Amino acid sequence: MAMGAGGAGEYKSDINITPLVDVVLVLLIIFMVITPLLQMGYDVKVPPRTNAPSGPPPTDLIIVSLTPQNKIYLNKEELNAQTLSLRLTEILKNRSNKTVFFSGDDGSNYGEVMKVMDLCRNAGAKNIGIVMEAVPVGGP
């Protein structure tokens, strides 16, 4: 606050807002510069959409499915986690294309989905494709 010109020892009652405006403008500029740097994302390769009729998948594809009851299927054959790992290691050992497709039901537990995907990766899968449509499995 500044001394008033009216009398000796009296204070002027209005606030000088110039320093406040300066500080607010500096903060605004800082936030405008930093905000684009904070926005992060992941690069995802998405194939182009095709209008080809959907038919049965080719027989050489490896499709791992997980049901809401945490049952694991490898190409419509029910397996447990350990057997899935052994079978995938055996299948992928002599293949040049080490791609595994994963189909998880919407009602599946996220933790279980990640465990099955980790099993696929540890068994030798280089790429894991996520199937967006439900793949019919062997059991009811």
What is the gist of this entry?
This protein is α/β, with parallel strands linked by helices. Helix content is about 35%, strand content about 15%. The mean pLDDT is about 80.
Could you explain how this protein is built, in words?
The protein is an alpha/beta fold and about 140 residues long. Helices cover about 35% and strands about 15% of the residues. Strands 3-2-1-4-5 form a five-stranded mixed β-sheet. β4, α3 and β5 (about 125-130) form a beta-alpha-beta unit. α2 packs parallel to α3. The longest helix has 21 residues, at about 20-40. It starts with 17 loop residues before the first helix and ends in a 10-residue tail after the last strand. The model has no long low-confidence stretch (mean pLDDT about 80).
Output the keywords.
alpha/beta; 140 residues; 3 helices; five-stranded mixed beta sheet; 5 strands; elongated
Alpha plus pi helix count:
3
User: How many strand units?
Assistant: 5
Oligomerization: single chain
Q: Main sheet?
A: 5 strands, mixed
Give the overall shape, derived from the CA principal axes.
Answer: elongated
Going by helix content, strand content and strand pairing, the class is: alpha/beta
- Reading the helices and strands in chain order gives HEEEHEHE
Q: β content, as a range?
A: 5-15%
| Fraction of residues in H or I helices | 25-40%
Low-confidence stretches: none
Mean pLDDT across every amino acid position: 81
Task: Tell me the radius of gyration.
Answer: 31 Å
Distance between the termini: 80 Å
- Which strands sit side by side, in order, in the main sheet? 3-2-1-4-5
